[in-house]
């Protein structure tokens, strides 16, 4: 078995073929990796495994999150079903560990990975290699065949779309809204600016709630993405982020923004919307999503390993 770095764009077609085989076998959603291969080549690491005939047998992706005290390598790996048990799992893990440790200066290092709850063989491998399960996440969906209810905006507050002029204040709002969330890392204004310049950015589903004093109180961002869910290729709406400043919680701002974005997604032709949420979200997000019609259909398990 040969292991090497991905050569782009030459390897893209073969990787795409491998991911489609993996999807056929277990319907795991792999579109985020295709997006990373096309968009994030400068900030991601990719590795492939090939047999002696040059056929791609495995694929791994590694992305780094860093703070002043921690380097976290977020890694994923996928194998052709016929390549199971040939040592690629161990090779992918060794590669991810070595690459993450090479990032280290005076910071602690760890690996993160996650998978759907119906993959016991993967969890057995992770636990046998000193990973610890720490969290559950739900993927929730809502049909948009019927028009969602009108949002009820609290008195004195207004809803509008975000602009480039909001970036600094939006960054502060995002970081304050998520600072108590598990494993949440602050975003920078540069990252937010790059997102809003992406060709696929849709300003009409990037919403802000403005307080009576003119400050930003809440936000809800969404996107329209091709996805493979439940074995089907489709284009869906995805709620990427929803957060409210602690001083403005309990007023219904998050619900109002969410309903407005669902209505806009439906007007744009989407027939369903998805959202991912921490099962133990400290602000009661699961209850909010259920109250507007979202239902859980996937559970994902998060694992960590200290290096």
TrEMBL record:
It holds the Pfam family Acetyltransf_1. The keyword RNA-binding does not apply. Residues 157-307 form the N-acetyltransferase domain. Keywords: Acyltransferase, Transferase. This is N-acetyltransferase domain-containing protein. The lineage of its organism: Bacteria, Bacillati, Chloroflexota, Ktedonobacteria, Ktedonobacterales.
């Amino acid at each position: 078995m040969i292991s090497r770095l991905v050569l782009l764009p030459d390897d893209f077609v073969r990787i795409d073929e491998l991911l489609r085989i993996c999807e056929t076998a277990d319907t795991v959603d792999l579109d985020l990796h295709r997006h990373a291969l096309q968009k994030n080549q400068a900030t991601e690491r990719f590795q492939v495994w090939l047999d002696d005939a040059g056929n791609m047998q495995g694929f791994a992706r590694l992305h780094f999150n860093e703070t002043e005290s921690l380097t976290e390598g977020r890694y994923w790996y996928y194998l052709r079903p016929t390549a199971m048990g040939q040592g690629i799992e161990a090779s992918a893990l060794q590669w991810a560990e070595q690459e993450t440790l090479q990032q280290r200066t005076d910071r602690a290092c760890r690996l993160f990975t996650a998978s759907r709850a119906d993959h016991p063989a993967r969890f057995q491998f992770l636990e046998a290699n000193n990973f610890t399960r720490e969290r559950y996440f739900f993927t929730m969906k809502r049909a948009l065949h019927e028009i969602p209810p009108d949002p009820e905006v609290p008195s004195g507050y207004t809803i509008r779309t975000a602009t480039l002029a909001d970036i600094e204040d939006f960054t502060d709002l995002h970081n304050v809204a998520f600072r108590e969330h598990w494993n949440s890392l602050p975003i920078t204004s540069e990252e937010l600016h790059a997102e809003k310049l992406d060709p696929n950015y849709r300003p009409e589903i990037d919403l802000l709630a403005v307080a009576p004093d003119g400050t930003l109180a809440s936000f809800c961002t969404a996107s329209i993405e091709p996805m493979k869910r439940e074995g089907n290729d489709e284009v869906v709406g995805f709620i990427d982020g929803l957060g409210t400043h602690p001083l403005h919680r309990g007023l219904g701002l998050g619900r109002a923004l969410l309903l407005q974005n669902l209505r806009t997604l439906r007007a744009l032709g989407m027939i369903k919307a998805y959202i991912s949420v921490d099962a133990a979200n400290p602000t009661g997000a699961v209850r909010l999503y259920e109250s507007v019609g979202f239902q859980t259909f996937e559970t994902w398990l998060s694992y960590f390993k200290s290096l």
